[in-house]
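Extended Data, panel c. Modelled sequence:
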Amino acid sequence: MVERIPQHRHCHSCGRAFTGNDDFCNDDCKGQSKEVVKSKKRQLMMLWGVSALVLVAVLWVM
């Protein structure tokens, strides 16, 4: 016989299966995910800033 798996979701941070309506299995995973998003936002803003500086430098030289 085939064993049926109960209805569940997977955590967006660690991938562990859990039951519930949230996107994360616990508060630690939720906090970790917020830190990753915050870090990626900071990295993107730095990329935009450096790109703007390079553009200004190139236009200044021309």
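Residues 27-61 form the longest helix (35 residues). This feature is highlighted in the accompanying rendering.
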